[in-house]
Structures are given as C-alpha cells and as structure tokens.
Amino acid sequence: MLGLACTQKVYLACGSTDMRKSIDSLAAIVQQSFALDPFSTALFVFCNKSRDKIKILQWDHNGFWLYYKRLEKGKFDWPKGGTGTAEISIRELRWLLDGLSLEQRSAHKKVIVNTVI
Question: From the CB of residue 1, how many other CB atoms can be counted at a distance below 10 Å?
C-alpha cells in the first residue's frame, strides 16, 4: 500500500514519461531534470502519454518503492503540457488516483480549528 503517513510533498512530472523507465531511470530524472532529491520523503508521480498509466517513485529507508497503476478504462486527469514538476497535496493525489480533477470545486474545504487557551 502507498505509504502516505510520512510523505510531506508530492511532485507530478509534467508532460508524459516513458513507462518503460524503471526505478534508476526515474530517480535520475528526479535528480537531474528536476533538481530534486529522490531519497527524500516526497512522492514522485509520472504519467504516460495516453494518461492511462501512472508510476509513483518513493524512497523507504533502505530502498525504493515503485507503484504502478494501469486503468482498464478512462484516463487520469493529468495536467496538460508543460515541463518540470508541479507540487500537489496528498489530498489532490488521492483525487487524481480516484479519477477526479485536481481542482475539485465541490470538495469540502479544510476546517481550521482555532483553539483558545
């Protein structure tokens, strides 16, 4: 299962990525093309040109996890065009994986509780 507990940041690789790439190639993209640390607690999310496959790269103490999801029908609502990365929240990643838009206008707003001492 996708380890989201210690994850603080999620980066989407804008545009499309060749899904034949494995852990080492994806980690090299993160480090060289995006100037980010693949060994951080962040998740790095990649999508293919057809937008029906996603790979997620995650470092976990002593090795990488590579998660792969292929849709049987439909497409991921992946940001179109561009290069580099887009930072999203864990909540937005869940929306993306569930087939929803990253810009949920009807989602409940985050509640901020003001504590008075």
Answer: 4
Tell me the two tokens of residue 113: 């509780």
Residue 61 dihedral angles phi and psi, to the nearest 5°: 60, -60
Distances (CA, A) of 109 to 15, 105, 106, 112: 29, 9, 9, 9
Residue bearing the bigger pLDDT, 15 or 23: 23
Report domain extents, the chain.
10-97
- Given a cut of 60, is residue 1 above it in pLDDT? no
How far is it, in rounded angstroms, from Cα 7 to Cα 81? 26
Q: Are residues 41 and 9 in contact, defined by beta-carbon separation less than 8 angstroms?
A: yes
pTM: 0.83
